[in-house]
Structure formats: structure tokens, C-alpha cells
């Protein structure tokens, strides 16, 4: 897998963008904010990657497989594990997730993203959705320790899933609510 990722020609990857006021914090100087996306890894390689990840990754159990929502503790509705540089943790929903040492497969993906976008991430949260019942709840990725100048990268392997972005003002009520039709 590592060698196949290195062989991909970055300049041949087609990018698409979503443009919308307030979409994210990444204003490219044109007065419109962008979120960019692509399918940079061909299907056959993506299938090989997911097969390798399925065969090598061990997901958190015990307290690290639970989440506190509105004061109540629930099992995570997905499998999860984290990797990163020494000493890194990630906190969300009263859960502190420790970064395990980078396995070769995940390190290869991090290096691919660096080659692709020039950003060297120090942490990754791997979520495995086993079936149509596993999910990620609505969230903002606005934890204080996250650097707001560094975009969040998301790689998805396996079955196609809907990735929903919702404008923060669409959550408000009354006069402050921004009516934004689904895109």
C-alpha cells in the first residue's frame, strides 16, 4: 500500500469545491469561503487500504469506546482508535482520547496527505462504521486545542456514505436562524 500511494501522481488529481459564505474558516482571499474535496485514491487501491486497515487496526474498548452526551454515558455508535505524535491527546464530549503510536498503514496515509496538501498532521482519529446503524453525530470540530488555521482532513474508505455539512447559523432559532436549503 505504501508504495502504491507514493506512485499516485498528485498533479492529476481533480479537485471540486463547495463555495458558501461561512462554510468554514478558509477564506482564500476572494470573499468566498471554500471547502475542497476529491477522490484522490483510485477504487482498487482504496479497497486494498481498507482490507489492510481491517486486518491490522484494533479499536478502543472500555471507557474509550463510550461517550457522554447530555450527562448520560452511551457506547460509541462506531468503532474508534487514534494515532499520533508522542504525547498528543484529543478531547471531545468529556472524553480524552490518547494517540497510539503511528502504525505504518496510517503513517503512509498521513504522508500521502502531506504530499497532497502540504499539511503534516500530528493526530488522526480513525472511525469505523460497521453498518448503516453506526454513525457520527452532528458536531462542530471546535474544541479549544484544535488549531483553527489548520483544515480538517477526512478520508473515507469502504461503502459510500453521505457527508453532511450544515451552516452554523442554520442551528440558531428565531430571527438569527439562517434558512439554508440543503445542497
TrEMBL record:
What cofactors are annotated for this protein? Fe(2+)
> Which Pfam families does this one have?
2OG-FeII_Oxy_2 (PF13532)
In terms of PANTHER family, this protein maps to: ALPHA-KETOGLUTARATE-DEPENDENT DIOXYGENASE ALKB HOMOLOG 2 (PTHR31573), DNA OXIDATIVE DEMETHYLASE ALKBH2 (PTHR31573:SF1)
The UniProt entry, under InterPro entries, shows:
AlkB-like, AlkB-like_sf, ALKBH2
Alpha-ketoglutarate-dependent dioxygenase AlkB-like domain residues are 85-173
Q: Which GO terms describe its molecular function?
A: broad specificity oxidative DNA demethylase activity; cytosine C-5 DNA demethylase activity; ferrous iron binding
Name of the featured protein = Alpha-ketoglutarate-dependent dioxygenase AlkB-like domain-containing protein
Q: What biological-process GO terms show up in the record?
A: DNA alkylation repair
Q: Which domain of life is it from?
A: Eukaryota
Query: Where along this sequence does the record place binding of 2-oxoglutarate?
Result: 127, 129, 139
In this chain, substrate is annotated as bound at: 70-72, 90-92
Amino acid at each position: 500500500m505504501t508504495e502504491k500511494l507514493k506512485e499516485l501522481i498528485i498533479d492529476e488529481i481533480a479537485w471540486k469545491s463547495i463555495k458558501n459564505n461561512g462554510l468554514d474558516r478558509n477564506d482564500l482571499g476572494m470573499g468566498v469561503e471554500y471547502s475542497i474535496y476529491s477522490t484522490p485514491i483510485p477504487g482498487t487501491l482504496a479497497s486494498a487500504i481498507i482490507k489492510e486497515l481491517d486486518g491490522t487496526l484494533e479499536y478502543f474498548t472500555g471507557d474509550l469506546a463510550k461517550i457522554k452526551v447530555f450527562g448520560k454515558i452511551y457506547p460509541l455508535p462506531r468503532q474508534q482508535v487514534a494515532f499520533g505524535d508522542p504525547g498528543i491527546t484529543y478531547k471531545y464530549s468529556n472524553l480524552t482520547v490518547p494517540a497510539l503510536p503511528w502504525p505504518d498503514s496510517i503513517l503512509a496515509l498521513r504522508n500521502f496527505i502531506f504530499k497532497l496538501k502540504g499539511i503534516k498532521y500530528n493526530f488522526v482519529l480513525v472511525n469505523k462504521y460497521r453498518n448503516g446503524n453506526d454513525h457520527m453525530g452532528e458536531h462542530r470540530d471546535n474544541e479549544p486545542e484544535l488549531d483553527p488555521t489548520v483544515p480538517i482532513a477526512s478520508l473515507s474508505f469502504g461503502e459510500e456514505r453521505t457527508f453532511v455539512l450544515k451552516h452554523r447559523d442554520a442551528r440558531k432559532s428565531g430571527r438569527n436562524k439562517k434558512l439554508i436549503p440543503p445542497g
